[in-house]
Amino acid sequence: xxxxxxxxxxINILTLNAQQIFSPDKKxxxxxxLVDGKPVYSLNFNKQAxxxxxxxxxxxxxxxxxxxxxxxxxxxxxxxxxxxxxxxGEQSVITNNYRxxxxxxxxxxxxxxxxxxxxxxxxxxxxxxxxxxxxNNLNYFVVKEEHSTFALSGDHKTFWIPGxxxxxxxxxTTSLLSEVDATKGANFDDIxxxxxxxxxxxxxxxxxxTNDGIYINIHxxxxxxxxxxxxxxxxxxxxxxxxxCPDAVGNKAYLQTPFTTPWRSIVxxxxxxxxxxxxxxxxxxxxxxxxxxxxxxxxxxxxxxWGMHVGTMSWNYGDLNNVNLKTIDxxxxxxxxxxxxxxxxxxxxxxxxxxxxxxxxxxxxWNVGWEDWFGKWKEEVFDFLTPYPDFDIEYLSNYAKxxxxxxxxxxxxxASVTNYERRMDDAFKLMNKYGYESVxxxxxxxxxxxxxxHDSQWMINHFTRVVEKAEKYNICVDSHESVRLTGLHRTxxxxxxxxxARGNEFNAWSNGNPPEHETILPFTRFMGGxxxxxxxxxxxxxxxxxxxxxxxxxxxxxxxxxxxxVLYSPLQMAADLIENYERFPDAFQFIVxxxxxxxxxxxxxxxxxxxxxxxxxDKNSDNWFxxxxxxxxxxxxxxxxxxxxxxxxxxxxxxxxxxxxxEKNPMKYEIEKKIVKKSxxxxxxxxxxxxxxxxxxxxx
Length: 700
Ligand code: NOJ
Ligand code: CA
Description:
The protein is α+β, with helices and mostly antiparallel strands. It contains 13 helices and 37 strands. β4 and β5 form a beta hairpin. The radius of gyration is 25 Å and the shape is globular. The chain starts with a strand and ends with a strand. The site of calcium ion has 5 residues, from loops.
C-alpha cells in the first residue's frame, strides 16, 4: 500500500523574517530566521532547546561565499505522508511523514544568486539540506567548506570515534563533549590508514545524551557527489561545526548547478529505544529507480575467511614478495601449504552451506596477487579475473549450482581504485559467467588516485558507480573500508551492507572490541544502514590457534547469537570456521534458524554503551526472535512478552549459564525449551558481556 498527499503553501511576504514549523505530532518546532543576513535555525523538542540558534552556510573557493548578505525571496511549506515498503529490512512498512519548510534566499554579490535551504521536520527529528538551483550567476563552483552548525544546549555525554578521512575502525570513547580528544581516541596501532584532521574532529553518526535524558543523533542522509561530513567540537560553546573531507588538493566538492547537498540529520527522543527505531535517515533518501529488484535477496553466508584472520589459513598461494601481474607464471609458483581458497576447501564449505541452508559462501584469496597486495601503494595489484592454480572456478561454480548455493565474490582493491575502475566490467562479467550474485569489495590502504581519501568526493562517486554498475549486472554489494552508510540502500537496494566501522575481525588479531562495542554500534554506525559485522564466533579465545595469543572476542557464545537479532543486516555471516560450528551443534541451531529479513521490529530496552534488547518478527513466518546483549556489566532484565502477536509460543532460549563470563568462562551456555504466554514477563540474566537469543514459534 502506497499513498501520499502533498499540500503546498507559498508565502510571498518578503518582510516576514522569522518562520516556524511543527512536526506532524507537534512535539518538535523548527525555527528559521535571518540574523544580519545570515541563515539561522533552531530546534526544540517538547519546547526544550535541542539545537540553539545556529548559522548555516557554505564557503566557495573561487567565488563569493554563501554565508551572509541574504534576503528571503520566498518561503514554501508543505506536508508529506506516505507508507512505503522496503524490499528488505527491519520492517515491511515504513511511514514517511514530515512537514517541510523550503526557504529561498537571494544574495547580491554583486549580481543576484539563489540558495535554497530545505528543512523536513518529522516526528523523530529534523533533516536539512542546501540546494543550488540552476541560475545565471552560478554554474560551476567549488566548495571550500560547509558551515552547518549544531549549537547544543550543554556539555552532553558523547559516544565518539575520531574524525578520520580514511577510517572508522576505532573503538568508541564515552566522554563529555568538552572532553573530546580525537588524538587520544586514535591511539591505535592496528588501523592501517589514518588521517586525522585534528584533536577536536569526530565522526558521525554521532550519539549524544543530555543531562535530562534526551538522546540526540547527528548524521547525514543520501551522501552523493559530495564528501563525507565530520564535526568539529567547539568546546567553549558546546557546538558542532560541519567539516567536509578534502580531496588531494584540499578542495571539498566540484559541483555544477542544479545541485542539492546530502541531508544533515538530527534524530531526537527522550527514549533511547526510539533512536534505534527511527527511519528518518532512510526516509530522507530517494526511492529506488531500479525497475527490477527481484534478484536482490537477503542472505546468510559462511566463508573461507576467519581462518585467514586467526592465522590458520592464508589468502596467498605462495610466499613471494615481488609480484608483477604481467610477468609472473603462477603455475611455477611453489604453494605455501596454507592457502585457504582451494577447490577442496571451497567444496567443503559449499557442502556445509547446503546441509544447513545457508544461501552463500564467501571465498577470499581465490585470485592471484595476495603475495604482495599490501602497503606498496602500487597501481597494479589484482586483476579480479585470474584464480590461483588450486582454485577451479568452473568446477566450483557448477558444484555450487548443483547444491543450490551461491558463491560470494571477493574484490579486494587494495585501495588502488583506478585499477578497479578499469577492470570492474570484466570482473562483473566473470561473476555473471560463473553465477556469483554478490561481491564483497575492500579498500585496505591509502587510496589511488594518490592523495584522495576514502571519504572524499571522488571516492563517494566511486562507491556510487560501483553499486550502479553492479545493478546492471544484477549484483549485490557488501563494501568494506568504504564510506559509512547514509541510508542509500533505499535508493540502491543492492548496496546491502558495508563494514565502515570496527568489525568482529579486530578481535582475532588486536586488542579488539571492548564488551560495550556492540551496545554502541546500533546508535552510531548502524543509524546509516546495515553493517557486515560478521558475528557468530564460537571459539572465543585465540590461544586455541596460537598458544601465545592473548587475544579473544570480548563476549560469551550467547551474546554472539544475540547479535544476529541486535545488529541488523540483510547479509549476515556465520563467521567462525565450520569445524567450530560442528563442535557446538545445539548453539549453532540458532544461527541456522534466525532470519535476515523482518516484517516487524520492536526495540524493547536500550541504553547506548550499556545494553540493547530487540524483538523482531520473521518476514516469512510467524516466528518472533529476541536478542539481548550487555556490556562489561552482568545485568538482569524483565522482558514483557506483550509485543507478541499470538497468545502462546514454544520458546527456545539460548542463554548464559550462571557461571558464564566473557573473560573466565566465555563458551558456557544453556539452552532451554518451554511454552510461554504473551501475558508473561521473562526474567533474563546476562553474564558480563553476555547475551541471550530467543526463538518463539506460535502454538495453536
Ligand atoms: C579487511 C576486511 O574487512 C576483511 O574482511 C578482509 O578479509 C580483508 N580486508 C582482506 O580483504
Ligand atoms: Ca576492515
